[in-house]
Design goal:
Layout lengths: L13 E4 L5 H12 L3 E6 L3 H13 L4 E5 L5 H14 L4 E4 L14 H25 L3 E8 L10 H21 L3 E8 L10 H9 L9 H13 L8 E4 L7
Helix pairs in contact: 1-7, 3-4, 4-5
């Protein structure tokens, strides 16, 4: 009989989060740190933010390491899990890093396409594959978007790569069972655009059935559920989008 564990307790676990230095990645890292996890904080080009986050995690009484790596280059990606495992045995991988550019199918260049594929899809694949080789038992969470299951014409290369990542989430869940769970967290209106106008935010919320932005605590709870909740859940995609994918 499997005994239930307290959801949100990651004490003694080490989690690698890609794109951890800013925005959602930073929120995820703080949540895991407060839940008792040690963190390996990956960043691409944000050393100062990553260092300050490491100090913040340390203030929770947890350990944190900073690893830089360009996810657009497969050589750098392939080495990341091995480098992380050398610092602390891994339990969790959160594939958070992504690029999100407002491009249509008409104006997407081959360079645009390849850049999105490399960072949003190829990097999570290589990291997950390497994770499964290094970790005997653990959890992978892929950060998705409500658009992944309701693709439209906007943000074309981003949406297509996230749709592919959703499919890969299910495929890897079957491939890595029974020792590693693979789930997805499909987000909606979580954080206002970093450089957007207030009117843009209002337009976003107008399309959300819940009629509001998510609260940070809701995002944290959803991630912690997938990292520390029932291990019998795998291949699932949870929508945290206020119902946006329904309309």
């Amino acid at each position: 009989m499997i005994k239930s564990k307290l959801m949100g307790n990651l004490s003694g676990k080490t989690i690698l989060i890609t794109g951890a230095a800013r925005r959602l990645g930073r929120l995820f890292a703080r949540a895991c740190g407060r839940a008792g996890a040690d963190l390996i904080l990956h960043h691409g080009h944000s050393p100062a933010e990553a260092e300050s986050l490491r100090d913040e995690i340390a203030s929770f009484g947890r350990r944190a390491w900073v690893l830089a790596g360009d996810l657009s280059h497969s050589e750098s990606v392939s080495q990341l899990i091995e480098r992380a495992s050398g610092l602390s045995p891994l339990y969790g991988l959160v594939n958070n890093a992504a690029i999100f550019e407002s491009l249509t199918a008409h104006d997407t260049t081959l360079d645009d396409w390849n850049r999105h594929v490399n960072i949003n899809l190829t990097a999570p694949f290589l990291l997950s594959q390497s994770f499964a080789k290094h970790v005997k038992a653990g959890r992978i969470v892929n950060i998705l978007d409500w658009r992944a299951l309701r693709p439209g014409a906007d943000h074309f290369p981003y949406t297509i790569t996230k749709s592919a990542l959703a499919a890969m989430t299910k495929s890897l869940a079957a491939a890595f069972a029974p020792h590693i769970t693979v789930n997805g967290l499909a987000l909606g209106a979580i954080l206002p655009p970093a450089d957007g106008e207030p009117s843009a935010g209002e337009k976003i919320i107008a399309a959300v059935p819940a009629q509001r932005w998510s609260e940070p605590g809701e995002v944290e709870e959803a991630l912690l559920f997938l990292l520390s909740g029932p291990a019998y859940i795998t291949g699932e995609i949870i929508h945290l989008d206020g119902g946006r994918h329904l309309v």
